[in-house]
Write a sequence for this structure.
């Protein structure tokens, strides 16, 4: 008797649960389809705007012309993209090494922090564009000069985030390590470093984007003398020639690189934190 | 363990210990105390009475402004375990790795002490959770891990700084019972800081009542009910009498402070 009575109640709950599940499913699909739809519509709007108003291609090229440029100039764009990628990733790599090493030095020695931190800030707040011409004079290789530029921009977020992270270890845990007689190295390895990891990864995400910006700015300034660096130099050169198809093609590839870098750093961050850090945990 | 309090061998002596912070704030005044082997000692008092300061002094985290703290026979490497008010676990490490920490910092590999770690986890009833991360555990379970970590090295003395204050009453009572069993199992000495009269009477055989401004010891009470104590002790007349005595001493402490 009681079983048959509870029957309809159960189905009501099931219906609500099913509705929730349906909504979740719709949301999941919309998460991908809506942005794609917006993209397709914008490209269409762009296309019709250009064709209906007969906008000249040296003012605004249509999407078809840009696609054509990507296709036809691939032989030129691809090596340029390789160069810019190498520049960006090397800058990021050295930024990680330099930023982390300096952060460790700062947290291990108050004297080191007092002596050098102001200069790290000065290096950061000085606009790279202002240093780039100097670097170009002092350094023969345009690639190395550009690398240095991109590095200066990228390393500061890693330094400052990692420094804060290394100092942010739980105070009770610090006390515990003191009571158990932990050495400096053990404290760094088992306490400060894991505590700093989420901060470092946050810095890495910012630095990834900044390394690309640094590389682009460096190419604008340094690549001008016909040294033929990467995508940004190609873009600048195309603008001088009013080759707007190629300009947009280069722009789209730079933007794609930014997306890829963001995806990579986000994935690394997620993989390293998913087991324990609040930021990477799913809530039920 | 079962020796009367005055026949137990001494473990640690605090001689006229004083602690002054930033020149003029007297956190602890002339504390004179002998901790015996096998004591379950509670430091009971209102906030500001220096009970946590006393614990930090004993742990060596801070040093007395005046006076001496001496371990009988010197302090060995694994003589001290500590449990804080928060579980204080490393969120990036599993339960077993957290319990491994005291050994790890002594350079002992996990495999060499696997049995000790599992035994400690078994004692607190968490052997099934050895590979879980702290975030997956409830507040009470995290505290159990913290206790397992404090006792895994079988220290002579375990310091506990209001470890159950943030837990709900049901969990607290359960952990009180378990703590007494654990203490009996590994036979260590415990110094337990609390501001709960009921908790101190249930757990300890020596209650040091402290007063604030300046932080000092004003009374020592003995709870002579033999261990093991179980849930029925909480409702006995004996328990009621002891809590009344402790309450009176505490009121005196508060009155003097006010």
């Amino acid at each position: 008797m009681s079983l048959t009575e509870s029957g309809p109640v159960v189905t009501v709950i099931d219906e609500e649960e099913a509705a929730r599940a349906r909504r979740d499913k719709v949301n999941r699909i919309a998460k991908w389809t809506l942005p794609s739809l917006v993209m397709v519509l914008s490209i269409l709007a762009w296309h019709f705007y250009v064709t209906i108003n007969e906008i000249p291609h040296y003012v605004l090229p249509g999407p078809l012309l840009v696609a054509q440029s990507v296709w036809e100039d691939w032989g030129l764009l691809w090596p340029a993209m390789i160069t810019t990628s190498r520049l960006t990733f090397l800058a990021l790599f050295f930024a990680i090494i330099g930023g982390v090493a300096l952060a460790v030095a700062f947290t291990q020695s108050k004297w080191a922090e007092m002596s050098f931190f102001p200069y790290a800030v000065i290096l950061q707040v000085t606009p790279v564009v202002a240093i780039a011409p100097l670097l170009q004079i002092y350094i023969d290789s345009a690639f190395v000069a550009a690398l240095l530029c991109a590095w200066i921009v990228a390393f500061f977020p890693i330094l400052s985030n990692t420094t804060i992270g290394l100092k942010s270890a739980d105070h009770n845990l610090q006390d515990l390590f003191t009571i158990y007689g932990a050495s400096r190295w053990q404290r760094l390895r088992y306490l400060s470093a894991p505590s700093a990891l989420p901060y470092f990864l946050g810095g890495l995400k910012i630095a990834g984007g900044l390394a690309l910006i640094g590389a682009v700015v460096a190419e604008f300034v340094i690549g001008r003398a016909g040294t033929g660096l990467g995508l940004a130099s190609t873009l600048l050169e195309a603008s001088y020639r009013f080759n707007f198809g190629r300009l947009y093609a280069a722009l789209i590839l730079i933007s794609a690189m930014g997306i890829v870098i963001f995806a990579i750093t986000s994935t690394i961050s997620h993989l390293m934190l998913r087991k324990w850090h609040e930021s990477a945990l799913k809530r039920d | 363990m079962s020796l009367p309090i005055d026949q137990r061998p001494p473990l640690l002596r605090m001689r006229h210990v004083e602690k002054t912070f930033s020149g003029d704030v007297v956190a602890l005044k002339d504390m004179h105390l002998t901790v015996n082997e096998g004591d379950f000692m509670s430091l009971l008092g209102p906030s500001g009475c220096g009970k946590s300061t006393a614990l930090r002094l004993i742990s060596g985290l801070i040093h007395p402004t005046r006076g001496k703290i001496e371990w009988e026979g010197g302090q060995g490497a694994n003589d001290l375990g500590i449990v804080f008010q928060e579980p204080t676990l490393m969120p990036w490490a599993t339960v077993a790795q957290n319990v491994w920490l005291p050994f790890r910092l002594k350079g002992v590999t996990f495999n060499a002490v696997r049995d000790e770690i599992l035994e400690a986890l078994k004692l607190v009833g968490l052997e099934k959770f050895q590979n879980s991360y702290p975030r997956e555990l409830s507040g009470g379970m995290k505290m159990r891990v913290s206790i397992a970590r404090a006792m895994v090295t079988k220290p002579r003395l375990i310091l506990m700084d209001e470890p159950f204050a943030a837990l709900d009453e049901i969990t607290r009572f359960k952990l009180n019972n378990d703590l007494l069993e654990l203490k009996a199992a590994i036979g260590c000495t415990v110094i337990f800081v609390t501001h709960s009269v009921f908790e101190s009477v249930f757990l300890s055989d020596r209650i040091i009542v402290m007063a604030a401004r300046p932080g000092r010891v004003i009374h020592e009470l003995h709870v002579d009910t033999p261990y093991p104590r179980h849930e029925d002790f909480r409702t006995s007349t004996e328990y009621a009498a002891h809590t009344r005595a402790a309450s009176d001493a505490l009121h005196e402490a508060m009155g003097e402070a006010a």
About this structure: Chain B touches chain A at residues 59-61, 77, 80, 82, 84, 86, 88, 90-93, 101-102, 104-106, 133-135 (CB under 8 Å).
